[in-house]
């Protein structure tokens, strides 16, 4: 169990800057994110795309913005809990008990939801029958590649994950690669390699096909694929892998008893608190009259939410506003002279 | 200005007058037409504004730009009439354009 002043859900730019503001006013926080890296949408959706509307930064990429924010909060030595997701919130006295998928537990008076449009999850097969095998023989990521040795593996997708795994697993497994069109979006060298392996009959390539059904009694035996004209084929498969990228799902946030407006959480604009005391929402996930989904708005929201957290984390202290240019206390917190 | 016809997966039809220069996605969002999520807000970074363009309209639209098909690979049940509605810019020529929404976006 970890005791802290604030748990931040989401390590995108908004969550990171809120952490900075918490550090400045002397509060501790723990940051949880479902992705395996820091940066949220900036790193997952557009690491290389230039952003032109960060105040005083004429142009930077999503990756540069993330790296600068990480640098900015370094002095506070906050903990990140990546590859983990906040699953449950329960109130106990004046505190929230926050539980994650990996079994971590935090006790905190404040939770700041900076969850963007939700957590990134792999897009799954649309086929109902695939659900039955989900996590056992229908997989969307690979943790242990040795399970595929000498097995038949059907891989769906046209990006780098699909191509890289098709190439890698073709060394020890019977690989079929299925993609909905002739072009691949993976790296040209991988596309070339796939072509070579297909010509040598090492990989079975099916383009302009998508999944129709998965079949098996107990264990998975075969996968049926279909073309757009309705023609179908059966492929023997012990495992079916889908690499269709990530989608954003609101996920467990929807079950925390918060008011929701479509996929967003209504907040007040004084401190961005939700309908639950001590739960704040900032960034793309919050909504209020005039809300703009800009990174700079998220920064502002994070700064005010941080002050809102102070009230519950230090109920016996009075919050005192200070400038970073003038305050020795803040300079101490930042480790600068 | 063009009249755009949006048909939900359950067959429910919505007609919206959409200003020139807006996208088909924006036309849906501004008129509260369900079935188009547009999570990324139109930056071609997700695939949640996916629509199937009515066959006879498909070739009348400006061709897909680089990257759109890559995103469509990640859409729910794409087919050869699939487009991202954030990449279809409305003009007078598109008056009567009909798009079908997929069963779901995510």
Task: Write up this protein.
The complex is a heterodimer of chains A (337) and B (106). Chain A is of the alpha/beta class and 337 residues long. Chain A folds into two domains: 2-121 and 247-334, FAD/NAD(P)-binding domain, CATH 3.50.50; 124-242, FAD/NAD(P)-binding domain (3-Layer(bba) Sandwich), CATH 3.50.50. In chain A, 23% of the residues lie in helices and 28% in strands. Chain A contains seven helices and 23 strands. In chain A, helix 1 (13-24) runs parallel beside helix 3. Chain A is elongated and about 70 Å long. Chain B has 106 residues and is of the alpha+beta class. Chain B has a single domain, classed as Roll (Ubiquitin-like (UB roll)). Chain B has helices at 24-30, 55-58, 68-72; strands at 2-7, 13-18, 50-53, 82-84, 98-100. A five-stranded mixed beta sheet of chain B has the order 2-1-5-3-4. In chain B, strand 1 and strand 2 form a beta hairpin. Classes of the chains: A alpha/beta (337), B alpha+beta (106). At the A-B interface, strand 20 of A face loops of B.
Structural class of chain A: alpha/beta
Q: What's the multimeric state?
A: heterodimer
So how many helices of chain B? 3
Q: Could you estimate the helical fraction of the residues of chain A in percent?
A: 10-25%
Mean pLDDT of chain B: 94
Percent of residues in beta strands of chain B: 15-25%
Full CATH superfamily name of chain B: Beta-grasp domain
CATH structural fold name of chain B: Ubiquitin-like (UB roll)
Runs of chain A in which pLDDT lies below 50 for 5 or more consecutive residues are none
Poorly predicted ranges of chain B? none
CATH architecture of chain B: Roll
Pattern of helices and strands of chain A: EEHEHEEHEEEEEEEEHEHEEEEEEEEEHH
